[in-house]
From TrEMBL:
Transmembrane segments: none annotated. Its EC number is 5.3.1.28. GO terms for molecular function: carbohydrate derivative binding; isomerase activity. The gene is gmhA1. SUPFAM superfamilies: SIS domain. Keywords: Isomerase. GO terms for biological process: carbohydrate derivative metabolic process. This is Phosphoheptose isomerase 1. Residues 30-201 form the SIS domain. InterPro entries: GmhA/DiaA, SIS_dom, SIS_dom_sf, SIS_GmhA/DiaA_subfam. It is an enzyme of class 5 (isomerase). The keyword Repeat does not apply.
Amino acid sequence: MLGAHLDSSAYVSHLQQEIAKVDQAAIQNWADLIYQAWENGKWVYIFGNGGSGTTASHFAEDLGKSTLHEKDLGDESRKRLKVLSLTDNAGWLMAIGNDLAYDQIFVQQLMNYGGEGDVVIAISGSGNSDNVLHAVDWANRHGLTTIGLTGYSGGKLKDLAHHSLHVPTNDMGMVESIHLCLFHWVLNDVFARINHVGRYEA
């Protein structure tokens, strides 16, 4: 826990350094894949454990609501991004964890929902969460596009996923914060493309 050793100024400085290390092309690619899912009417599924699980919920909420102008949310004719966080169905998670195994909680949902061409965003700071890896492996074998968001060394997920957004730092708080920070740019970029504003103004 870096904040236990660094004062706030040093912590913020270190955070800036870590953000600057992230591959810019990987950030753009992340946005491209979500936009392509919207274009093609495909689903985006997001999941992770603990803090990464709540990040998945946050991503899904923002992508579901904030890829349109608020004034357009009542317009039934507007094309929507199909997005679902697999961390939020508590009953299903508990049933799978109890009746099968915890490492099955995401892959079992994907078996019901997922289809060829859908996009999976798998979040794991360590890159080694078995339940995340099982789901990504299944998705890879069934024609879904997988994106791994990782930290530390990237673990197994960094190489298993088709695409990777890696935050190469060894502090979980910073990893999770940077994932969320960069996601908000991705959200803004997808919003701009869907609505033809800002850099994408027609």
